[in-house]
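User: Modeling request: complex.
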Amino acid sequence: MTVALDPGARAPAVEGFPDSFTDGLYLAALRTLGDAEDARDAVQETLARALDGIRTRELPSGVRLGAFVHGIARHVIVDILRRRVRDRGRGTRTPMVSPHPSPLDQLVASEERERVRAAMAKLPARDRDLLRRCFVDGERLVAIAAELGETPESIRKRKSRALERLREILKAPAHGHVSPSDPTVEP
Amino acid sequence: MNGTRQCPVAGDGELIHRYVAGTLEPVETEAFEIHLLECQRCQRAVREGAWVAAGLRRHRPRWWGATLRWTVPIAAAAAALWLLLVTDSNPLARLGRIDPVPEFDGLPVRPALDSATALVDQGMEAYRAGAFDRAAEFLAAAAAREPSPGIQFFLGIARLKTGNVGAGAGALITALEPPGNPYAAEARLYLAKAWLALGDADSALTHLAAIGSGPGAVQSHAAALADSIRRVSKP
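Assistant: Request completed. Predicted assembly structure:
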C-alpha cells in the first residue's frame, strides 16, 4: 500500500487501517516481546502514533505505509523493552522472554497444543521430522535438501504435503472443527 | 494482499517457518514483518506455523512460561549461587561463563559531569576494574539518559557478571535494536550465555542460530559454542 499525502487534502483514507494492520502488528510484537498483554499495548500505541503521524503529515510522499507503521512499531517495542530493563533495575517484575519455546507459542492455548500434538503423532515420522526441522529448528530448505540428498523443491513439496495431512487430521470429527489454519486466538 | 490471492512469500514458505522458529536474520525479519502487516495470508501461515511448532516441541512445564516473571528474579539469584557452586561440575553453566568479559576501548573525552558520556566513562572504568556492580549502576543511569545499543550491551554484560541474569538479558535484548547495529550479533552471543547460565540449552541455541551474518569472530565463536552445547546436551 502506498500513501501519497496531498497537502491540500485531509489525511489519507485510513478507515479500516487498524483492522488491516492489527494482526500483523500483534504477531510481530508478540514475537519480540513474548507477552500477550505487552504485545496488545504495543499494537494500540503503534496505531495511535501512526494515525497521528498520518494526520500531521509525517509520512513522506511515496513511503510505504507498512514500512512507516513498522518503523513506529519498532520504536514502541524498544520503549517497552527499555521499560522492562528499568523495571528490573528497580526490582519490579519483568519477564525474560525465552526464545525457546517461541514467544509465538502463546498463540496456541494449552488444550489446543495437546490436540495438535495428538494429531502430529498420527503423521508419519518422516513428515514430523521435516516439520520439526522447519518450524522448530528453522533450517533452510536448501540445507535440509543437501543433507537428505533431495532437491529443495522436493523438500518444499514434502513440507506442503505434511502440512496438508496435518490439516486433514485436525479437520476429522475426532479433532473437532478448528484447524490451525483457522486460528481461534485473536489479539 | 488478501487471503485469496497468491502471495510469493507464502508460496515458498521458508521465510515463514524460519520466522516462526526465530532464525531469520534481522534484516530479513524486518522486511518480512513489513510484508506481514498487509498480508493476511502470511498472518494465517505464521499462526499455523506457531501451532505446528507448539505441537512438535517438547512439553515444558506450564510454570516456565506462565510464571516466568516471578521465577526469573528467583532464578537470577539462584543462578548467581549456582555459578559459584556448580559451575565447575555443570558443563552448560561452564559454557555460559563470561570470562574474559568483552573489551572496551573508549577514547577519553571531557564531558559535562552529569552527562550520559560522563556516566559511561565512570561505568566503563568500573567495568575494566572488574567492579561490575558499580559499572551496572553507572551504565543504567547512562542508559536512562541516552539509550544506545553500546550502553545497553555493556550494561547487560555487567549485570550478567553480577549474577543478575534476568536484568542482564533484558539489557542485551534492547541492544539488539536497531537490527544490524555493531553490538547486535555479540549481544546475541551473550544472550545465549545468559540462557546457559539458567540451564536452558535450547534457548541458547536459538539465539546462536539467529546470529547469522555477524562479524566473523562472533560467528566462529557462536558456532563453536553451539557445537559445545550440542555435545554436552547429548543424552
